[in-house]
Amino acid sequence: MVGMTSRLHDRVGTLSRGMQQRLSIARSLLHKPAIMLLDEPETGLDQQATSMLWKALHTEGEGKRTIILTTHNLERGLELGDRLLILDRGNIVYEGSRQVLDLAGLKEAYEHSTRVRA
Fold first, then answer.
1. Which of 104, 33, 44 minimizes the C-alpha distance to 68?
2. Residue 1 CB partners (closer than 8 Å, separation 6+)
3. DSSP letter string over 4-42?
4. CA separation for the pair 60, 92 (Å, rounded)
5. Could you give the CA distance from residue 89 to residue 3 in angstroms, rounded to a whole number?
6. Who is most buried in 13, 25, 66, 81, counting CB within 10 A?
7. Is the pTM of this model over 0.90?
8. pLDDT digits (tens, 9 = 90+) for 32-81
9. φ and ψ at 16, to 5 degrees?
């Protein structure tokens, strides 16, 4: 599922950061959890591994899983999320639905929230 069959018998300590991230993703999917918390899950992944990550999450979940994702990538958040929140210092400064927001609107909400803080 995460493209690591050839590394099946390797020690975790010998894996690159990206391969360790892939392993963490596979472990997190193992028991098919109803809720997943993903904090910047694309960190350390190349483009191929990132694609595998989202494919695995969508295939395994079949819409029956809640995923809470933190990301600094606004495009990715908009692409993947149904509900979007912008946090600033632990406070929700924006909350909205993907259906009523496009990328320009999300960027505007983000920039507004950072201007208010400054």
1. 33
2. 26, 29, 52, 56, 60
3. -GGGTTS-GGGS-HHHHHHHHHHHHHTT--SEEEEESTT
4. 30
5. 37
6. 25
7. no
8. 888 888 888 888 788 888 888 888 777 755 567 788 888 888 888 877 77
9. -70, 170
